[in-house]
């Protein structure tokens, strides 16, 4: 669930980077670079992620790397439970910030 949660958010960020910035990171560290890219304003858009959400999503990204590279046996509930507890608040914050970004796009589309 945690892996899918982060992966779906990352897909949205990739679409924004591709469509608005016309630039996707391509290095080995592209996942981290994408988060960083979305946390700063670009020529055609404001920052998509607040510092708070950028930091929180970084924790989910770190889990994603663990999940993809480690055995499930190495994952312990005592280490995962804090991240599970953050999932709903991070989801709510992500939803609010993406909706604010959509409003920005709509306002600028009608102003053009």
Rounded to the nearest angstrom, the radius of gyration is 15 Å
Give the SSE string.
HHHH
H/I helix tally = 4
Largest sheet: none
Average pLDDT, all residues: 90
Structure description:
It is a single chain. The protein has 112 residues and is an all-alpha fold. The chain has one domain (2-111). It is built from four helices and no strands. It has helices spanning 2-21, 30-38, 51-69, 77-111. The radius of gyration is 15 Å and the shape is globular. The mean pLDDT is 90.
Which keywords apply here?
112 residues, mainly alpha, 74% helix
Q: Could you provide a short overview of the structure?
A:
The protein is an all-alpha fold. It has four helices and no strands. Helix 1 crosses helix 2, helix 2 (30-38) runs antiparallel to helix 3 (51-69) and helix 3 crosses helix 4.
Topology (elements, then pairings):
Blueprint: H1 2-21, H2 30-38, H3 51-69, H4 77-111
